[in-house]
Specification:
The chain is 20% helix and 29% strand. It is an alpha+beta fold.
Length: 156
């Protein structure tokens, strides 16, 4: 009686020259996975803080909302130049706690600046900024040329 052995596809480890290529591929993958994530986190920590923001668009305007909790209206700057909106300012630490010992500190303080490029032209004279409950809302109405237009289809 003869015994049958099931056929298996040879693995890369059975090919000595390809083993080094597999090692090289693993090294390259490891190089691109971990350091880039770490680099992004490190650069954000070193650059201070960056407030979270959302940008919305409807048929009439662009709206930007930024989280600026703990800031005073006087410490916030909004500017518009060449189709870009820049939000800047400074969040200062609470002076009433300057003599207290810090047990845990997770909030960022200091200067920030965020610039958003708008996808279309805005009516500069109609831009409004409103700050309430730690949220800055900037409304940028579109120019008439930038608004979508309905085109009537004619039949011959």
């Amino acid at each position: 009686m003869s015994s049958m052995i099931r056929w298996h596809r040879p693995g890369l480890s059975e090919w000595p020259d390809l083993g080094r290529l597999t090692d090289l591929r693993d090294e390259i993958e490891r190089l691109f996975e971990a350091p880039l994530g770490e680099l992004a986190r490190t650069s954000q920590l070193l650059s201070g803080w960056t407030p979270a923001l959302d940008v919305y668009e409807d048929k009439d305007a662009y709206t930007i909302r930024a989280e600026l909790a703990g800031m005073k209206k006087e410490d916030i700057e909004v500017s518009l130049h060449d189709g870009c909106v820049t939000l800047a300012g400074e969040r200062r630490p609470d002076d009433t706690l300057k003599d207290a010992e810090v047990c845990r500190s997770e909030r960022f303080f200091g200067r920030f600046q965020r610039t958003v490029t708008l996808p279309g032209p805005v009516a500069v004279d109609k831009v409004k900024a409103h700050y309430q409950d730690g949220i800055l809302t900037v409304t940028l109405p579109k120019t008439e040329e930038a608004k979508p237009k309905q085109i009537e289809v004619s039949v011959n």
